[in-house]
Input
Amino acid sequence: MSAETLFTRIINGEIPAEKIYEDDNCICIKDIAPKAPIHVLLIPRKAIPRLADATAEDKALLGQLMLTAGDIARQLGVDDAFRLIVNNGEAAGQTVFHLHLHILAGKGYSEANLGF
Ligand code: 5GP
Output
C-alpha cells in the first residue's frame, strides 16, 4: 500500500486545502469541486485505499469517523439534514484511493429525493 496519496499530501501540508476540522485520527477539508452547497471530505490520516480494504484492525477508526461526521454536521449547522457518501472502487466513482467520507448538505441537496 502506497502511503503517498493525494490526501496524504494534503494531510502533510504539501498541498493546500481548506481545513475545517482535525484531530489525531482524521482531517476534514472542503471539497475542491463541491457537488452541494456544503460538501466536505472526512479523511482518516491512515491511508486505507478503499472501504473494502479496511480490516478488523480499523474497527475503532471507522466508528470514530461516523461519530466525527455527526460532530462536523453539528459544527456546520446541518445535523438535521445531511448525507454521507463513500465511493468504493473506480466503477462506483472513486477517484482518490484514500478512504474518505463525503459529507453533503444544503438547500436543494439534503431534501432531494435520491430514490432510495
Ligand atoms: P471520490 O471521487 O474519490 O469519491 O472523491 C474524491 C473527491 O476529492 C472529489 O469530490 C474531488 O472533487 C475531491 N478532490 C480531488 N482533488 C482535490 C484536492 O486537491 N483538494 C480537495 N480539497 N479536494 C479534492
Observations:
- The CA atoms of residues 6 and 96 lie 7 Å apart.
